[in-house]
Amino acid sequence: MKPPLSLESLPQRQCATVATIDWSHLSTPEARRLRELGFDEGVGVEVLHRASLGKGPIACRIGRMTVALRRAVAGAIFVSPVAQ
Amino acid sequence: MTSTPLVALVGNPNAGKSALFNALTGARQKVGNYPGVTVERHSGKLVLPDGRIVELVDLPGAYSLEPSSPDERVTRDVVTGAQIGERLPDALIVVVDASNLDNHLRFALQLIALGLPVVVALNMIDLAARDGLTLDPVKLSAELGVPVIPTVAVRRRGLDEVKATLSGLIVESAAIRLRPSDPAIGEDIVTLQRRARKIALGATVSEAPVRRWTHALDAVALHPVWGVLLLMVILFTMFQAVFSWATVPADAISAGIAWAQESIRATLPDTPLRSLLTDGLLAGVGAVIVFLPQILILFAFILVLEASGYMVRAAFLMDRVMASVGLSGRAFIPLLSSFACAVPGIMATRTIEDEKDRLTTILIAPLMTCSARLPVYTLVIGALIPDRHVLPFVGLQGLVMFALYIMGLVGAFVVALVLRRTVTAGVSSGFMMEMPKYQMPRLRDVAIGLWSRAEIFLKRAGTTIALTIVLLWVLASYPVAPAGQKQSEYSIAGRIASGIEVVVRPIGFNHDIALALLPAMAAREAAVGAIATVYSIDNPDDPRGDNQLRRNLQARWSLPTALAFLMWFVFAPQCISTIAVTRRETNGWKWPAFMVGYLFALAYIAAGATYWAAIGLGL
C-alpha cells in the first residue's frame, strides 16, 4: 500500500479525488465549512496555486469552484491521484 | 387589505445575488437594519407583470441554513419566519451560479424543502457557456420540482420571466400559507451535497474543463512574487489616486463655498445670524464636504476590487502576513475598507467566522488611516511641514503623510499581536474562502454603491457635523469677550478648552487644539471645521479660505506641536460613530470601552513622545 498523499503535498495541477478526510484534525466550524464548500469523499480536487513557498495558503479546485485553504487543513484531506 | 407581498432573494455568496437584486429593483432601493443586529437590510420595490407591487429583500449570502455568522443567521431566520421585525416571505427567488451547480444546489435544496413558493434563478448562464458548460434548465426544473429560469443579471436577461413566474407563485390569500417546516429536520449536509451533485450532473448536457480565463489571471494574481507586486501596485495606485484625482473637484467645491460665504456677507446685515451662517455652518461644514471627492475615489476603488473578485485574491496573498499576528487573510478586507472608513470596515468583519479573530479585527480597525483623518493631515502638513524634496520625486510633505499611514499599520499589527496573546487569546482561526470568478465590475452596481456612500457622508455632514459646528459656534461666540481679550479664550468653549488644556499641555497641545478635540469626537474631520470656525470668530475681518487658515496655523503652532497633533490623530479614537458601531457589533459596552481606553492611552503616549523627541532634536 502506498503512503497516503494529502492535498497539501499533492503536486500542482495533478488531478485527484478525495480519498478520506481526517475530521478529527479539524475544528467543528472548520469541518462544517469544509463540508459546505463541497469536500467529500470521491470529489475531484486539484491544487491550483500556492501563495508562497513557505506556509501560505493554497488555492485548489473542488468541483467547478476555487477554494482557498490553509495548509494545516489541506493536510487533513487525503487524496488519490487520477491518471491523466 | 393585506400588506405588500414580500419576496426574498437567497443564495450562496458569489451567486450574483446583488447584481440580480440591482437589476430587478433598479435605483428604488432602501437600506435599513434588522432590529437588534447590524446586518443591513436591502430592500426594493418590484412591479410584477400583473401590476402588483411586491417588496424584494436581498438576504445575506449563505452556504446553508446552519448559520456560522450573524449575516447567515439573519438569512436563516428570515426564510423560516423567525426574524423579528420581518414577515415570512411569500416566495423565494433562489439564486444559483450556473457554473457552480454542485455546490449551490445544496443550499437550494434546503431552501426548497422549507415549503415556500420558490423560483430558481440559474444565474450567470452566459459565463457557464463561456466555460463550455451546457445545462438543461427543463431537466433541472423537473428534478427540483420548482420553476428554473436561466438569467444573466448583469445583462438583464431572464428578468421578465422571473417576474412572470413570481406573479404565478404569489397567491393573494395569505390564509393558506403554511409555516415552513423546521430546517433542523432535514437531511444532513453530506447527503444533501451528494443529492445536489447528482442533480447537477443530470442537468449537465456537456462540460469542458473549468474556466481557463480565471486560472490564467490567477497564475499572475496569486503568484508568490508577481501577485504580491501586483497588489502593491494596486494599493499604491489607489492611494495616489485619492490624492491627485480629487484636487480638481475639491477645488471646485472650495470655490463654491467661498462664493456662498461672500454672497451671504454681501447681502445680509452684520448680525449674529450672518456670522452663524458664514463662520459657523459654511466654514465648518464646508471644510468637511471638500473631502467628498477623496472619499468617493477611495470607495470606488474598494467597490471595484470587491466586484471584480480581486479582493479575495488580496486576502489570499495577505493571509500569511495576517497569520503572523494571529489574524486571518479575511481580516484584510475589513481592514482595507477601514482606510475609507472604520464604520463599514467594522461591519465587514461579520464575514469573519471566528469570534476572537473578529473581535481583534474590530479593535484594530480604527488604527487604519480612515478618510476622515485626511482633512486633518492635509491641513496640518500643508501648513507646517516645509514643501521641499528630500529625494528626487519624493517630497517631504508626502513622506510625512506616508509615514502617518505606516504608523497606523504598524500600530495595528503590534496591537493585534499583543491582543491575540492576552485579551483575545485563543487558537488561531483558519482561512477558508471560496474564490469567485473574475468579473468585469458593472458601472451601474459601482454607481449604486457609491451613491449610497455619498448619501451617508453628506447626511453626516448635514446633521452630526453641522450640529457640532453650530453648537461649537454658539459656545465659542458667547459670552462676548471684552476688548483686549481673545474670544476663543473668553467664551464658554474657550473655558472648557482651558480645562482640557491642562491635561494635554504636557504633550505639547495648545489651547486651539484643546478646543478642536471635543468637536473631533463627533467626527475627526470636524477638527478642521472647528479650527476654521474659531479663527474666523477671533478674526472676523480676515480674508476667508484655506490659505488664511494655513497662515493662522503657521503663526500659532510650533512644529513639535503640529507633529504631536498628527500623532494624536493616528491613534486617538476620535469618532463617536466608530464607538457606536463597535458597541452594536460586540453587543455591549465592554469592548468599545476597552478600545477607547487603549487608543487614548496610545495616542497620549505617542503624541507626548513625538513632542518631546521633536523638542529634543531642536525642531
Automatic annotation (TrEMBL), chain A:
InterPro entries: Fe-transptr_FeoA-like, FeoA_core_dom, Transcriptional_repressor_C. Pfam families: FeoA. It comes from the Bacteria. Keywords: Iron. The keyword Iron applies. Residues 5-81 form the Ferrous iron transporter FeoA-like domain. This is Ferrous iron transporter FeoA-like domain-containing protein.
From TrEMBL, chain B:
It comes from the Bacteria. Keywords: Membrane, Transmembrane, Transmembrane helix. Gene3D superfamilies: P-loop containing nucleotide triphosphate hydrolases. InterPro entries: Fe2_transport_prot_B_C, FeoB_GTPase, G_FEOB_dom, Gate_dom, GTP-bd, P-loop_NTPase. Residues 4-172 form the FeoB-type G domain. The chain crosses the membrane at residues 107-125, 216-236, 281-305, 325-347, 397-419, 461-481, 557-581, 593-614. This is Ferrous iron transport protein B.
